[in-house]
Write a structure and sequence with these properties.
This protein has helices at 3-28, 40-48, 52-55, 60-68, 73-89, 93-106, 111-125, 132-152, 157-173, 177-185, 188-196, 215-231, 241-261, 267-284, 301-319, 321-332, 336-343, 351-363, 368-374, 377-406, 409-419, 422-439, 443-463, 471-486, 499-505, 514-562, 566-578, 580-602, 604-614, 622-652, 654-666, 670-673, and strands at residues 288-289, 295-296. By secondary structure, the protein is an all-alpha fold. Helices cover 76% and strands 1% of the residues. Helix 29 packs across helix 30 (622-652). A two-stranded antiparallel ribbon has the order 1-2.
Length: 674
């Protein structure tokens, strides 16, 4: 090979290199900041919003780290992850922080880096310290690490959501939440940092009852920031929309619960729950995308059902006799007992029948496709449109109901309603005061406060059974346990207002279903009413028995006087007949006795009893037994009356007969008595 050949090859290589640089320049020319400037790649970054400036804050150190890795950024990041784990195990916190910073520089736009390492600091590292102040510092390190990630990933809603989650959940629900919440409210350095990120910590939206920033409310402001980004068109990645949007409204509830546990039990707590209710209603009106290609609103379930019923009614009118005929055939095919329930009037159905009616109505609903086949051709097009609309509404109703049950939508809605009532705040205040009195060894005051609180809670649970599965229900049950200790009893009183709640909470799994509590409570009320009626009947029976015994004792006491010795009566009569004054006085003395017997025989009560005795009485009626007993006693008195007359007339002669005549003339109704 001569020199000329080598030179020519060098020229060819140089031309190829220059020719290669031209397309590279056209493709990779950077933008100068103006629209539609730069190469093709710069234009594509602007179009799809994937430029460094569009993603977040540009970090020169991060770009330098990427170049220094010589294309081995993934390998370097993996090695740093391993080193970070080793440093955490060895408790080398400074080296751990340095490793985390290097990982973030190598992978600044990978959300998982920020989430994982922030969780590592706030949860795993913080528990290694004994002092809660040091634990709080590590939690703050984790939240600030997330804030850096948000700055470099402005279009990462999941990362913003995670930051709001940290401020609420980690600070407000950890074992040291009381100390953490106080330290956060006084952490002015952190407050200034949050203000620089656009979080209005000085606004009323972030301040608690003490007019200091509250961690739950600050976390909610972070979440609202994420919601604004999504509403602007950024898609949610790596998280379900329903979970993403529910956290912000829930943080308002958590704030209200937190201040109540801290002793704020006045109108400020009511306002907090009112605000929670407004936030939950707003959440119910938000359009939430689903995997089925349509969006739903959790608060529109009633509207969807109303629309479906309207479309069904239109379909019935279009189908006409065909629909009615097929429906009648299904009704005729029902079992006899089921058909009887269906044919009863709504007010005549039992509770079980009312619960079974939705399933019965669904079973007799004709198949719409089969109805469509039997319709005339002129009505089929309209019927097809209605069927499609009904199917779409069914899908939306099913998805809406599924999402509502997934997040327990009705529970939070009922909680907001219940907690806005003054009696609920009063019940919580009484429990709080009882707990404080119990801790101060004021046992009698604590018992009285407990009783008042439990009576109110029983009324609240009757109106809102779903609150029995509230997080605070466990706290209320523990208060019941402390009340049992205060009264020095292992069993609750029979009339304890929360007996059903305590019994179900004492079971193996506690109260898992609010409907189950409602059913048990209703059954308990019915059983209590039935038992009360039984006790009243038993008490009435005992009173009747006591009345019969008293009447029998009275009759026994009067019987010896009626059957006295005839010889003694004769002597008394002869003595009285020899004494003119006594003979004249005898009719006057005999008259009250005759009148008394006549009144006993013909008293209005006994006449009424005798009339009732003539009427047929029920065999098991206690009144019938009582009346018959009184009639028997009256007959016995009436029979004993004429037995005394012969005893006095046999030995007394004309004087006695004269006495009887005078008595009979002066005594009204004496003829009836004789």
């Amino acid at each position: 090979m001569n020199q000329s050949t080598a030179f020519r090859r060098k020229i060819v290589y140089l031309v190829i290199l220059v020719a290669t640089l031209v397309p590279l320049y056209l493709l990779g020319r950077p933008s100068d900041g103006t629209p539609d400037s730069g190469g093709q790649l710069a234009l594509m970054r602007q179009k799809y919003g994937i430029a460094e400036s569009d993603l977040g804050e540009i970090s020169p150190a991060s770009e330098t780290m990427k170049l220094a890795s010589l294309g081995l950024r993934g390998v370097a990041a993996t090695l740093l992850w391993e080193k970070a784990h080793d440093y955490r195990v060895a408790h080398e916190w400074d080296r751990l922080k340095a490793s985390l910073n290097n990982i973030a520089l190598l992978q600044p736009h990978y959300d998982k880096v920020w989430e994982h390492q922030a969780h590592n600091l706030a949860y795993n590292v913080s528990i290694e310290f004994d002092d809660y102040r040091q634990r709080y510092e590590m939690v703050r390190e984790g939240t600030e690490f997330l804030t850096r990630g948000v700055r470099q990933n402005r279009k990462a809603p999941r990362l913003i959501w995670y930051t709001g989650w940290f401020y609420g959940q980690k600070i407000g629900m950890s074992d040291e939440k009381k100390q953490f919440r106080r330290l956060f409210s006084e952490d002015k350095v952190l407050h200034d940092s949050l203000a620089n990120e656009g979080i209005a910590v000085d606004s009323n939206e972030a301040k608690g009852p003490d007019q200091k920033p509250d961690n739950w409310l600050v976390g909610r402001l972070w979440l609202d920031h994420g919601y604004d980004i999504v509403d602007a068109g950024v898609k949610i990645r790596r998280q379900s929309p329903i979970n993403f949007f529910e956290t912000g409204p829930k943080w308002l509830f958590k704030h209200a619960e937190a201040i109540e546990k801290e002793g704020v039990l006045d109108e400020r707590a009511v306002r907090a729950y009112t605000k929670s209710s407004e936030g939950w209603e707003q959440f119910g009106r938000r359009s939430i995308p689903t995997n089925d290609g349509f969006s739903i609103k959790l608060g529109s379930l009633d509207d969807l059902n109303a629309q479906k019923n309207e479309k069904l009614e239109q379909f019935r009118k279009v189908a006409g006799d065909v629909y009615e005929k097929m429906r009648d055939e299904k009704v005729a095919a029902l079992p006899v007992d089921v058909r009887k329930v269906y044919e009863k009037a709504p007010e005549e159905r039992t509770e079980a029948g009312k619960q079974a009616m939705p399933a019965i109505l669904a079973s007799i609903e004709p198949n719409r496709d089969q109805v469509l086949k039997q319709l005339p051709q002129s009505a089929q097009l309209t019927a097809i449109q209605l069927i499609d609309e009904i199917k779409d509404l069914d899908a939306r109703i099913q998805k809406t109901d599924s999402y509502r049950r997934q997040i327990n939508y009705v529970y939070w809605q009922s909680l907001a309603m219940a907690e806005q009532e003054e009696r609920t705040v009063q019940a919580r205040r009484l429990v709080y005061e009882a707990e404080k009195a119990n801790a101060d060894a004021e046992i009698y005051l604590a018992i009285e406060k407990y009783k008042q609180a439990f009576e109110i809670w029983a009324e609240i649970f009757d109106d809102y059974p779903i609150l029995t599965i509230d997080d605070s229900a466990e706290d209320l049950y523990m208060s019941i346990r402390r009340y049992m200790i205060a009264i020095d009893s292992e069993d609750l009183p029979e009339d304890f207002p929360l007996a059903t709640f305590a019994r179900m909470m004492n079971s193996e799994n506690g109260i898992q279903n609010a409907d189950a509590y409602k059913l048990v409570r209703e059954q308990q009320v019915d059983l209590a009413a039935k038992r009360k009626k039984e006790l009243e009947e038993e008490e009435r029976a005992r009173e009747l028995e006591a009345m019969k015994a008293a009447e029998a004792e009275k009759a026994t006491e009067e019987q010896p006087e009626a059957e006295s010795d005839p010889s003694e009566d004769a002597e008394m009569k002869s003595d009285e007949s020899n004494d003119p004054e006594s003979a004249e006085a005898q009719p006057a003395e005999a008259q009250p006795a005759e009148e008394m017997k006549q009144e006993e025989a013909d008293s209005p009560e006994e006449q009424a009893d005798s009339e009732e005795q003539a009427e047929p009485a029920e065999p098991d009626s206690p009144d019938a037994d009582g009346d018959s007993a009184e009639d028997t006693d009256s007959k016995a008195d009436a029979e004993s009356a004429p037995q005394e007359a012969p005893a006095s007339t046999d030995d007394s002669g004309s004087d006695d007969s004269g006495s009887d005549d005078s008595g009979s003339d002066d005594t009204p109704g004496s003829d009836d008595a004789s």
